[in-house]
Design goal:
The chain is α+β, with helices and mostly antiparallel strands and 168 residues long. The protein has one domain (2-158). It contains six helices and five strands, in the order βαββαααβαβα. It has helices at 14-29, 64-79, 85-97, 102-111, 125-134, 149-158; strands at residues 2-9, 33-41, 49-54, 116-124, 141-147. The protein has a five-stranded antiparallel sheet with strand order 3-2-4-1-5, with helices on both faces. Strand 2 and strand 3 (49-54) form a beta hairpin. Helix 1 packs across helix 5 (125-134) and helix 2 (64-79) crosses helix 3 (85-97). The protein is globular and about 35 Å long. The protein starts with a strand and ends in a 10-residue tail after the last helix. The relative contact order is 0.28.
């Protein structure tokens, strides 16, 4: 099962400072973090900044397109003006169709706000659980969404990667 884990930190610089420790933990546990993105959102800014980091061992398995799709649907749709209307609803439906429940998206939107930062990690469910358990002392709120195999397949298809699977 593919898992998206979001580590939300209370300041714009905290995620970048915590990232090396999370990566060291994953390496020590010998687990694969398939794709990582670092998000910072300084107070007073209208939009967040995203840095795609790939996997610990090289380029990410998914895919720059995934992060653009995910962040656009989570963060841009709510900021669009009312004239965006029906299109915004269609985008919101797309996230749930891709396996990201509305409740998860709402939790991410409520926590990743101006003045915070986050690390978004795509991995197997087992890797996510092991890293979270080992990194218990990190000052972050951890949000998790497990994608069922069918949802992961639809996500890969949406990104034009029908044959892709995550390396574990």
């Amino acid at each position: 099962m593919d898992t998206l884990t979001v580590w939300v930190f209370p300041t714009p610089s905290a995620a970048a400072a915590a990232l090396p420790g999370l990566e060291e933990t994953a390496l020590a546990l010998d687990v694969s973090l398939d794709d990582i993105a670092l998000v910072t959102w300084p107070k007073g800014r209208r939009k967040l900044s995203v840095r795609q980091l790939g996997a610990l061992t090289g380029p990410g398995t998914l895919w720059g397109g995934f992060w653009g799709l995910l962040f656009g649907l989570i963060f841009l749709v709510p900021l669009a003006d009312p004239m965006f209307g029906a299109a915004a609803g269609a985008f919101a439906g797309t996230l749930s169709e891709l396996g990201f429940p509305d409740a998860f998206v709402d939790r991410v939107r409520a926590r990743v706000v101006p003045g915070t930062s986050a690390i978004f990690v795509l991995s197997s469910g087992g890797a996510a659980s092991r890293v979270a358990a080992a990194a218990g002392g990190v000052d972050a709120t951890v949000l998790r969404c497990d994608l069922a195999p069918e949802a992961a397949r639809r996500l890969h298809e949406a990104l034009g990667e029908e044959g892709s699977t995550h390396a574990r």
